[in-house]
Design brief:
210 residues, 3-stranded antiparallel sheet, globular, mainly alpha, two-stranded parallel sheet
């Protein structure tokens, strides 16, 4: 986990938490319970990759929830480049991807309504693949979570979790030769304390600096 001050372009790492099992709502509650009280009471928003329970966690703490744009787009284009992607329903797929990109960024209310209606038409097309239909329906249902950075511009929210994802890869490499959970945690903690922070720009960074 990392925390980013509103007017900063860097996120500062917290000490890691090591838990057994897969990522889940319950384990995230345990991890968040380790936040220093003085830090926790200053948190206004929560940026996540949309893991199961992330919206509930934000609601329980009274935090604004911003979901990662990158994870969404990757889910929608995961088969891009494969023959099955190009041959069947390519127009529907590309159309929905274009709609999603606009809805992620537009500040025009009429355009937002227009693109939402277009998405609904494309979703009803017989060549729309089930997996992209499911992703897009979920996106439309939770649209405000993807647009929190627009709805709350004063918070200068980042729209991806990429900085944390890239750090996670480095931690896995740094702990790859550790043989016990205790040594994994010690190495991960030392790694993050030495690294301290990472670049993490919010979408409103330029405006806030002016």
């Amino acid at each position: 986990m990392a925390v980013k001050p509103i007017r900063s372009h860097r996120a500062f790492f917290l000490d890691p938490v090591l838990l057994q099992g897969k990522e889940s709502y319950e384990r995230w509650r345990v991890a968040l319970a380790t936040l220093p009280p003085e830090t926790k009471k200053r948190i206004l928003a929560f940026v996540s990759d949309g893991f199961r329970g992330s919206k509930l966690i934000a609601k329980e703490h009274g935090w604004i929830h911003q979901r990662c744009h990158f994870h969404l787009l990757m889910a929608l284009i995961r088969r891009h480049g494969k023959r099955s992607y190009r041959v069947k329903g390519v127009g529907v797929r590309e159309g929905l991807l274009g709609v999603v990109r606009i809805l992620l960024n537009t500040t025009d209310t009429l355009e937002k309504r227009k693109q939402t209606l277009k998405a609904q038409r494309l979703l009803s097309h017989p060549l729309c693949p089930p997996w992209i239909r499911k992703q897009t329906i979920e996106f439309l249902r939770t649209l405000d979570d993807f647009r929190a950075y627009l709805n709350q511009p004063s918070l200068n929210l980042p729209t991806t979790t990429n900085s944390i994802e890239s750090t996670g890869k480095l931690i896995r490499k740094a702990t790859s030769t550790a043989r016990t959970p205790e040594s994994v945690l010690l190495r991960a903690t030392a790694f993050l304390r030495l690294r301290k922070s990472i670049t993490c720009n919010g979408k409103s960074s330029t405006k806030l600096r002016q």
